[in-house]
Amino acid sequence: MDMHTVVVGTSGTTAADVVAVARDGARVELSPEALDALARARETVDALAAKPEPVYGVSTGFGALATRHIGQELRTRLQRNIVRSHAAGMGPRVEREVVRALMFLRLKTVASGHTGVRPQVARAMADLLNAGITPVVHEYGSLGCSGDLAPLSHCALALMGEGDAEGPDGTVRPAAELLAAHGLAPVELREKEGLALLNGTDGMLGMLVMALADLETLYKTADVTAALSLEALLGTDKVLRPELHAIRPHPGQGAAAANMLAVLEGSGLVGHFQADEAPRVQDAYSVRCAPQVAGAGRDTMAHARLVAERELAAAVDNPVVLPDGRVESNGNFHGAPVAYVLDFLAVAAADLASIAERRTDRLLDKNRSHGLPPFLADDAGVDSGLMIAQYTQAALVSEMKRLAVPASADSIPSSAMQEDHVSMGWSAARKLRTAIGNLRRVLAVELYAATRAIELRHGLTPAPASRALIDALRAAGVAGPGPDRFLAPELEAADAFVRDGGVVAAVERVTGPLA
């Protein structure tokens, strides 16, 4: 594991820290300020616990059962029971990186000093992350309100030495065995602590942060593949000039156009016309409007990033311990702010994939490709070329359109109508992760087609950036034009090349950093 250390303080965290812990295995350390804040807040909770008056989460039941006052002798059992009963997830296991993000973000809120959790519980949470122990969390169980309850409960269950978890070697074992193997003791939860470990937007927020990191690379990749398709179709780069985008000053649009123009600099294909064709005044929308579509998605990402930054600075729990010593109930656990932007991003991703698929289809259609062979085949009729690669791309886009239907527009009442409006933010995050994987594959197919098409423009010289990208792709095991061959492995290799950032890296060696 990476020995980089992320220090958790009282004022939130950064997106970079979330990615470092979730994906790169960075170690976690609590700051002295956080430990002091934890101790002060716990004094408040202990004082309230000693009073006869009921306090929600400290000396009462939960949700619709909050009317029952719980005596001292039952409170440890109460906190243990909420974790056990709420760990009710079902379905496939959630990815390790998502669970680590979830655990880290819960620790971030606990360390704020607003939850009333003891310092030793926070240390135990950090120890679990640092040991590489990842609780088994299931796909279904969160409504995105009152926190990501079931997912967080499965994490808290492992902290108690119960349930299953994945060790650093990838093997799933009983959590108690893994704790013992790493010299860690199970935690016995006290007043409010069970509730505090379950009540946050941490799962959906972690997935939002990682989605933004992925989309930042994919939007740059989409600018590159759009530029390559324009080049392969002998399109014009005049529409990319900055003065045209300055008069419609959406920042994302200007950035996308600038990226495409940088990639196409020095191209011998752009603006070239076939001898038997009349000069084209305009290219098709899928080519000409690429910056407008990619730019709108970029601006959507900017808004989503702002929401993520605010949520990363938040302390989400109910009730919360305030600096003046009050413990107050609230509704800050409602996931609507995060859920909305997760859905917005799914819409933007679907549209970006849709326009990329249209460009690919144009490259394969001899009636619209301006002189390219049908389906970019070696011997059309004997060879089918990339015909079915476009089918695969179309299937991916079609699924993305379904995934773009907003989860946050739905709500199902729960907890005997006490929790009668929920955000479905976890569901929005889960479908966005699927959509991002599909978008990556769609762009990989466009990359595969556009690079082949450029190489089929015999006698014409591509832009230096395009040439560098083609060379890098071929070096990665993705072959160029030729007779039909088993296509799936090459498409998989192209997908891996996109996933690893190879498109952007190859181009930036020529263009410098893309926007």
Account of the protein in words:
This protein is mainly alpha-helical. It has two domains: 5-200, Fumarase/aspartase (N-terminal domain) (Fumarase C, Chain B, domain 1, Orthogonal Bundle); 207-410 and 424-511, Fumarase C, Chain A, domain 2, CATH 1.20.200. It is 54% helix and 5% strand. It contains 19 helices and nine strands. The chain has helices at residues 15-24, 32-49, 75-86, 96-110, 119-130, 149-159, 175-181, 193-196, 202-232, 242-246, 251-264, 285-288, 290-312, 336-364, 387-403, 425-455, 464-475, 488-499, 502-511; strands at 5-8, 27-30, 90-93, 134-135, 138-140, 164-166, 172-174, 320-321, 327-328. The chain has a three-stranded antiparallel sheet. The protein has a two-stranded parallel sheet with strand order 1-2. A hairpin with a 5-residue loop joins strand 8 and strand 9. It is elongated. The model has no long low-confidence stretch (mean pLDDT 95). It comes from Streptomyces rubrolavendulae. One of its GO terms (biological process) is L-histidine catabolic process to glutamate and formate. Its EC number is 4.3.1.3. It is found in: Cytoplasm. GO terms for molecular function: histidine ammonia-lyase activity; phenylalanine ammonia-lyase activity.
